[in-house]
Specification:
Blueprint (H helix, E strand, L loop, with lengths): L3 H17 L5 H5 L8 H13 L3 E2 L8 E2 L1 H14 L20 H16 L2 E5 L8 E10 L2 E8 L4 E7 L6 H15 L20 H10 L6 H4 L4 E4 L1 H4 L11 H9 L1 H9 L8 E4 L11 E10 L2 E11 L4 H24 L2
Antiparallel strand pairs: 1-2, 3-7, 3-10, 4-5, 5-6, 8-9, 9-10
């Protein structure tokens, strides 16, 4: 357990290192008016913090730099103390104009979050397992071409085209829209009984034949509406400004290329109720252990649906990152409330 003075000294070291990127010496800390102790006392506290694993010193330098544990202590204090800064770049995220276009909202969120933090940003869509069939529409595009549109409760839309050998009766197309909604609305996307619900011995030959032709529209819906990962800002993360703080860029890029693995890692946080963080060696994916991941979940009042976050060097602006992901998650939560309320 760190004393109050050790906590103060550790916070000052991390802040100074985040700002300068240079090892922090005892003299730089002791001259601060808010420290309240002399150089010799500061040296003793720095030594104690290093022994406890919060600080280390590169090479033979007398200055200290934070370890993963030091960053973790600092970031946890920001989260628990509500000291996170306002989001960076002076940009506010507003999804109200997105209406109900889920994919567009997630992409815009990741893009805005990257601009706000100058880091790589990620956002995950709600898992398809949480979605149900909201509405089905059958549209006569041409005399012998019908499109069946399935709209899921999570905003996913799938479209299938069906070509018929002869012109289709418009009244039959209108009827099938009503029939499909009656039989399938509210059914889980991956439910095996979807096709079975289309069987009805009381239907006439024309209706039954038409249903046989279009029932493939309801196979594989879960796969097509599967959660995706939206990534924005790779160029920002790999810029010259961040390059000195990213010692293992190749491993990082491999992690980003393996989108399925990164998506799985982010999905593992769906039970988190607050900001979540993986700093350096804490990352579950080995390729990410040279960076920090700061994220937050968005969702409805009764359950989380997905996550937004940023990936950056250990020496990042944690206060801005925490505030930004909080804002992004809150905005997405408000957006999905309107999406789900309308379905």
């Amino acid at each position: 357990m760190l004393s109050e003075r050790q906590q103060r000294v550790l916070r000052l070291v991390v802040e100074a290192y985040l700002e300068s990127g240079k090892p922090v010496g005892s003299a730089a800390i002791a001259e601060r008016e808010d420290v309240g102790c002399g150089p010799s006392t500061v040296r003793g506290e720095l030594a104690a913090l290093e022994l406890a694993g919060y600080l280390t010193h590169p090479h033979t330098s007398a200055g200290r730099v934070p370890t993963d544990s030091g960053y973790r202590f600092f970031a946890d204090a920001l989260v628990s103390g509500g000291e996170a800064a306002t989001p960076g770049s002076g940009e506010a995220l507003d999804l109200s104009r997105m209406r109900r276009e889920v994919e567009e909202a997630l992409r815009e969120t990741a893009s805005a979050l990257s601009r706000m933090t100058d880091l790589l940003a990620v956002a995950t869509a709600p898992p398809a397992s949480s979605a149900r069939i909201h509405r089905v529409e059958a549209l006569l595009l041409q005399p012998n071409v019908v499109m069946v549109v399935v709209i899921a409760s999570n905003g996913a839309v799938t479209k299938r085209l069906f070509n018929f050998a002869k012109p289709v009766d418009p009244g039959l197309v209108e009827w099938v829209s009503s029939f499909l909604n009656e039989r399938l609305s509210g059914l889980a996307l991956g439910a095996r009984m979807a096709v079975d619900r289309l069987d009805d011995s009381e239907l006439g030959p024309a209706e039954r034949e038409f249903l046989v032709e279009v029932r493939d529209a309801f196979s594989g819906l879960e796969e097509e509406a599967a959660s995706d990962l939206y990534v924005e800002g790779a160029a920002r993360l790999l810029s010259a400004e961040h390059a000195p703080d990213l010692p293992r860029v190749d491993s990082l890029m491999r992690a980003l290329e393996r989108r399925a693995n990164l998506l799985q890692v982010l999905r593992s946080t769906l039970d988190e109720r607050s900001v979540f963080m993986w700093i350096g060696g804490e990352n579950p994916a080995p390729e990410l252990r040279s960076v920090s991941v700061i994220g937050a979940n968005y969702g409805l009042g009764y359950r989380n649906l997905g996550a937004v976050g940023v990936v950056g060097p250990l020496r990042m602006d944690y206060a801005t990152a925490i505030a930004s992901v909080r804002e992004a998650a809150g905005e997405l939560s408000r957006f999905f409330e309107t999406v789900y309320d309308s379905r």
